Amino acid sequence: MYAMSGLSGLTLACAAVSKCEPDPDDGEDALEPRAAIRKAHSVKVPRLYKTCAKVLQIHDEGRGALKNLIYGANHPNVKAMLALLTACVDHRHQLTALRVHLKWEEREPRLDPGLADVLLTELLWGKGRLPGQSRPVQTILTYEAAIRRFQLPPLTDSVVERKRLTRIRPRYVRINRLLAPDTGTVMRQIQADGFSLMSQVSLSQTYEQFLSRVRDLQPGQFILDYHIPDLLVFAPGSQFHDHPLYRAGVLLLQDKASCLPVHCLALPSGAVVLDACAAPGMKTSQVAASVWTVGTRNGPCVYAVERDRQRFHTLRKMLQNKGAAECVKIFNNDFLCLDPARFDDVEYIVLDPSCSGSGMLNRCEKVDLSDERLENLAKHQTRLLLHAGTFPQVRKISYSTCSIMDQENEGVVSAVLADPKFGANFELCPQVLPSWSRRGRGEERFKACLRSDPSEDLCNGFFVSVFQRKSEPNVEAPIIRARKRKSNSAPESRRRKMTEV
Q: Which domains does the chain have, with CATH numbers?
């Protein structure tokens, strides 16, 4: 769970900066005259920098993941916040070295270190300049000559490698069939906007040959994905945030690896699916687009569960904007607290729980891969997967993580299959996306699982496994249940009132 209480202060100024006195021995690095600084004191710091500094402070205190804090800050320019804070975290050890070199703790004791890091990041790796006449900005600028002369230490190897992989990763764009009139119309609109569709990969070509073609994509070119319908692959750096189809919800920016868990379930139209850890909602919308056909069901066919209140609101807003409100019922609840008997119509479960995030290329913070952290994550992931196996009518369960660590992947799969009850009822699906090259590690049975490698597959690092029930579940219960819903919906709504929001 992410603590969000500190966000209430995001609209307030960060620690006030006042009375920055110059050091007479500073020489050319000395501050501007006191009169200019006093005048700047009444000018406000731009909201973007104040908000970023507050988010950074909350993150440093261990009260939330950076990305979640950014989206929860309610700032109108999320893209700018994400770029600025990602760069700030990437260069944090360099910023610390710079502040130590300039002796800011002695010279500028009232300058908030977080705000200073944000402003320095903008100056060195962002716009290259600082707008406005506020006191913190003017204080930073008095040191600009010394800042630019300082020889920064090199970036860490992990940051360098992540930046390299990010530069070569293509832009994946999924067509949202909940809002798209049809795929052909969307493709024609994209081409009318100046993009060129490269010739489709023939059936005789391999996945490795497809990857070679993706690496050769030039700006303005795109290709249809080899595995996932409705997924388009554009050259790295392609921008869609201002595209009218993106703004309308017809195009979704979703990494290919994130599409794999739902795709590997091979969901039939009309199936009833539960997304156990649903926020922010990309997989939920993909599920809805896969199973929902207008007029085929009297009510929702997707249940989306999210325990965190803030993330629940993000999920609800996302699904409303993407045309999924009619077919998805959302619950602000812990999946472990759901009574499977009350969801006896669920046939498929998507389980993508919290993990270390060690496979994410755009991870905004240092990943904790300590043995204790991985052990705790694996225990919780195992509990969630075992609980998914208790739903009486579930036929298939996809378990996935955006982690590359064995403990959270093959280790969890091994643990649940060793459980007497789960192992007696479920097994790994043997033929999951056979054309995918990279499989699970270790024992031969793990070859049924998928792994994506950022350097090889040109997407985030991911693990995907699919479990299937060994024998057909009793189909009578959901049929009776559906009749009850149709004839008397009021008791049903009251029965779920404690969990549905």
A: 5-149 (no CATH), 163-253 (3.30.70.1170), 257-478 (3.40.50.150)
